[in-house]
Each structure stands twice: as C-alpha cells, then as structure tokens.
C-alpha cells in the first residue's frame, strides 16, 4: 500500500483522568491487550496489527456531554465499533462498565458511554 508522504496512521490517544482504568475497560470490551503501561500513558494494539488505542492522563479532565448542550464540554471524538448483534454487544459493553446513553439517534446504532464519559457507537454491520 502506498503511504502518501511516508505517513502511517498508528494510534488514537484518548484523554482520561485515569488512563489505566480506561485502558482496562477497552481491553475487556475489545479483547485487545495492553502492550505498554506507564503511570500517565497506556497503549494497546489491535491483534491484527491495525490502529492502536492509547490513553493519557488529563489532570483537568471534564467529561463530555452527550448530546452536549451549549455550556457542556463538547465531545471531541468517538469510536465506531461494528458488531454482529446490537443486543448481545450492548450487554457485553454494559458488563464491561459502559452506560447506554439516553439519546439514541439511529435505529441500527447504539451509543454508549465509557467509564470516563467518552461516547462510542456500536453499529450493526
């Protein structure tokens, strides 16, 4: 595959008040394994070698609102996770510590909040 200008996208960093705790949530959710854990930064990679997730300490972290109101901390990004079955994937997400968001904008997508409040979508694919 050609890489324009030698660039390779490798990792998404997610801010959190406790990066280790949030990484362990995603480890349970996705079945990935933590490869590096430092006090303020944790890294995990997809088993197939794809893009990884990293979690870093944000000492002044403010949970995003979903959907955000005019004075709420805005969501800066969210993860999209394809699933085969919304109900069983949602039950798994809740068992891992996710919360179903009150606002659900689409029929074939479920928005959940991770323990730090970041929205993520489970979508039927």
TrEMBL record:
Q: What is this protein called?
A: VOC family protein
The organism's place on the tree of life at top rank = Bacteria
VOC domain sequence ranges: 6-125
TM annotation in the entry: none
């Amino acid at each position: 595959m050609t890489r324009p200008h030698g660039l390779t996208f490798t990792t998404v960093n997610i801010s959190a008040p406790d990066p280790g705790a949030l990484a362990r949530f995603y480890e349970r959710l996705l079945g990935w394994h933590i490869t590096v854990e430092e006090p303020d930064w944790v890294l995990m990679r997809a088993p197939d070698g794809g893009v990884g997730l990293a979690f870093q300490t944000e000492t002044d972290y403010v949970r995003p609102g979903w959907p955000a109101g005019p004075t709420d901390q805005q969501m800066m990004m969210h993860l999209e996770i394809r699933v085969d079955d919304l109900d069983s994937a949602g039950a798994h997400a809740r068992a891992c510590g996710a919360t179903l968001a009150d606002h659900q904008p689409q029929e074939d997508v479920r928005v959940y909040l991770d323990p730090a409040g970041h929205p993520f979508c489970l979508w039927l694919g």
